[in-house]
């Protein structure tokens, strides 16, 4: 009986792990600027369950900020450790390239939206930048998930707008790539050096 219960628990845990690896996470980033007012959010969700949501600008507690400043002051710059870490990075680089490609394969762009209201002191500069932007955006706007637009401001210098980015991120291929990279000694040595860099 006890073995049956353990087997069921292991099976449930395996299914949960498989679901986490196969079902993608959704990452949303939105920011808007109007004059001096900047606001937005950063959000991560899974199966429509919100896991993380942070407002922009990020609010950091005073105590944590003071502690962070104190820790940064206490850190000592060690050139020897830095050079050693750089050498280890170069040794591990060839093993990190598959990790980079796996990361790119794990990401799917769902939405890229940019709406600018831009102006310079010189109307000529504004018109020139608007022309470049229009040429560039007319090509990219062919992609269904991309929307780029710009409204020129010829009367004054101005930079306002909205930006939204939605991504879908699946963990399976990146997890496999990370585990494979960790089997390589140069990668493990690099991680150990990075861990001890600020100590």
Descriptive overview:
This protein is an alpha+beta fold and 199 residues long. The chain has a six-stranded mixed β-sheet. Helices cover 52% and strands 30% of the residues. The chain has one domain. The protein is built from six helices and six strands. Helix 3 crosses helix 6 (185-196). The longest helix has 28 residues, at 79-106. It has helices at 2-22, 62-74, 79-106, 123-140, 172-182, 185-196, and strands spanning 25-34, 37-46, 49-56, 107-119, 146-152, 158-169. It is extended and about 75 Å long. The mean pLDDT is 87.
Class from helix and strand fractions: alpha+beta
> Strand-and-helix sequence, N→C?
HEEEHHEHEEHH
State the low-pLDDT regions, or none.
none
- Quickly count the domains: 1
Instruction: Give the helix level as a range of percent.
Output: 40-55%
Radius of gyration: 24 Å
> What strand order characterises the main sheet?
3-2-1-6-4-5
Distance between the termini: 51 Å
Number of helices, counting only DSSP H or I runs of 4 residues or more? 6
What gross morphology would you assign?
Answer: extended
How much of the sequence lies in strands comes to 25-35%
| Tally of DSSP β-strands | 6
Largest sheet: 6 strands, mixed
Mean pLDDT across the residues is 87
